[in-house]
Amino acid sequence: MNTNMQDYITHSNTREWAPLIEKGVHYAGIFVKSLRYDAASGRSKTILLRFEPGAKYPYHNHPAGEEIFVLEGEATLEGATLRAGDYLYTPPGFKHSVFSKTGCTLFFVIPEEVELLDEPLNKAD
């Protein structure tokens, strides 16, 4: 095991926000920063997401659950509004969409890739 602490630190303030594009779908108004990339699964399992006002992520399932911490702004999931400082754990198999009327920044831990249940609106060209 590598014991160099510097190899495990992510300086998120030095990283640029990237548009959220998954499987060729561009989610307008949603941006991502990877905090922890897992080479074995080929995906990021810990991320920051920034929603611009009015942005929405479609209805989806979390096969292994998720953890969300709201850093700033507000996000609505299935009628529940989360505000800065709120934490949400959703158990495996939990389904919901995410909408932000005002915009927000969220810290996510997502052990497994989500399964979309609604057709996304924006396909990337």
TrEMBL record:
Tell me which residues make up the ChrR-like cupin domain. Answer: 6-108
Know the name of this protein?
ChrR Cupin-like domain-containing protein
Task: Give the domain of life.
Answer: Bacteria
**Pfam families in alphabetical order:** Cupin_7 (PF12973)
Signal sequence coordinates: none
